[in-house]
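Changelog entry: the ABC transporter permease record was regenerated in this release. Current contents:
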Amino acid sequence: MMFRQFAYRNVVRNRRIYAAFFMASVFSVMVFFLYSMLLFHPSIEGSATQDMAVLGMGIAEIVLYIFTMFFLFYSMRAFLQARTKEFGILLHLGMEKRQLHRLIFTETIIIGAASIGVGTFLGYMFSKFFFMVVKRIVMLPALPLYLSWEPFALTVGAFLSLFIIISLVAPVFIQTGKLDELIRGETGGKESHGFSKLRGIFGLILLAVSYSMAAFISNNIIIGLIFLLPMLATLGTYFFFTDSLPLLLHLFKVRKEFYWRHFRLLAISEGVIRLKENARMFFIVTIVSTIAFMSVGILASLTSFASQYREVNPLGLVYESFPGNELESAHINRLGYELRKNDIDYTYVRFPILKQQSSFTDNTVSIIKLSNVNRLSRSFGNQAFELKEGEALFLPPTISTFEQLNKQIVETVLGESGVPVRINGAYPYQLFPAHAIGTNTIILNDIDFDKVASFVQYPSSVYHAFDIPDWQQTKNIGLTIEHSMTESLLTGTYDDLHYTFDNPGRNYSVIRTTFTLLLFIGLLLAGVFLLAAGSFIYFRLYTSLDSDRKQFDVLRRMGITDKEFKKIVNRQLIPQFFVPWGVALVHSSFAFLSLQVIWDALAEISIVRELAAVLIGFTIIQVIYFYLIRWRYLAHIRTPG
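Regenerated structure tokens:
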């Protein structure tokens, strides 16, 4: 038998152990190849959204490559440690260490070449579907399938170099020691490892502190804690698996009335051993799963912001002119002309904004006219309001401030004009973006507004509101005004402008496209993370399959029923699958509480629905994965070795 044939048959013989490793590698190569196909696509050019697509794919490729390197190193280390008995036999038969290193190198290259070949093939097979999704998200006219050597060269070169590096470093992971110890391998006996009660309690305290800070955090201190909390939670998670969980299980073992009952003795004692043996693996799975949850959750919250963008930006176009703006009439006429040219229905309302000092608070108050408000409100389908002379309403700067302002009754005198006003409640409809007309604004009846205007030479500003029902059609309206603002910003003359312009329709188009694309990229990366996390458990489970088969064979000879057999298997498998996942779920839930605080401060948007969908989706995937692995595990356990 040739040496290469021996290496090939070794891989085939251990295919059960390498299966999850191979699947995760193939999926990583496939996703990397898809990103490469988009990076080198000849149709990608020009717009900011397309540039964002290329940037997102490039960053995703870097993250994917680094994570795959870590995953392959950890996996190879576990595989080689599990094969110490096999290596011991080969050395006993006369194989030199140099030949053993060559064997490992050849096996790794075989697996790597197969992964690269299959992953690249599947990537090209799914490229057309991938382009269809990206084209719809980025709104490109066409994104046809193409054939070029560049994506293939980048993918093959990146992963082939990665597998070569791993195959060269892998022999370092082989356990050294006496030959008889290598031959015994994992069958040399299991023993319960110790734990530190102090570290166990410290780990629980770290997690409790992290959760408490995340749950009760405020927007004033969240930036300062955004780097501290992940470190506390990570350190607490490590101690939780290495010391806290063994401590808790030890407390159960002390209670003999609980421990010495049916199959709990076997399940808990075996669980303690496996927990300590696999503590680092559980820690890694938890962190990787948390990263997957968080990445998708954060990106889902961004798409939530995009979906609720219309609610916080009800107007289609907004133009505000300040004193000294000689371009006001030209700009407004230009916007109206472009809207009519594109057959876009709109309602235009001009809001002169007056400033007065309130005698009640000695603060400056912004004043707008009721008839203008009613005209804009009717275009939204709302009913008009009536105010008598001397009456006014608060204009809430945000949706959340309505309840507070609606309960207030304020009697004041507008300083410069001397007009007495009784402000009773708040205006119930949101017509303007948050803080668009200041944080202290009132709606004044027409008679009193005209009185105040007679004492004011010029309005402090004029707010031009365009209500456009089909607001997403405005993405190409007002581009010349936006370009002039951008040019002024780049040249440092922005402060000399006497106007501001905002196009929420265009902003929404960019935001929705960008965030949806990022979510799509994040889902693919999360798929790699979760598949890798499951693979850690998979190959750790199957490397101990021979000893598990012998153990359950003894139990069957003792008369254990099939129902009892499944119950024991469940009690051993469920903690390995769901304890790391459950800890990751709790980590993510408390992190999302902090994320909700950030969104409340930025845009008063709720992300509960999106985050709940993310967590429920991952839960379903984990349950399906558990039953799939459990089915295969039971089949192998029942098969005689």
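The CA atoms of residues 285 and 533 lie 5 Å apart.
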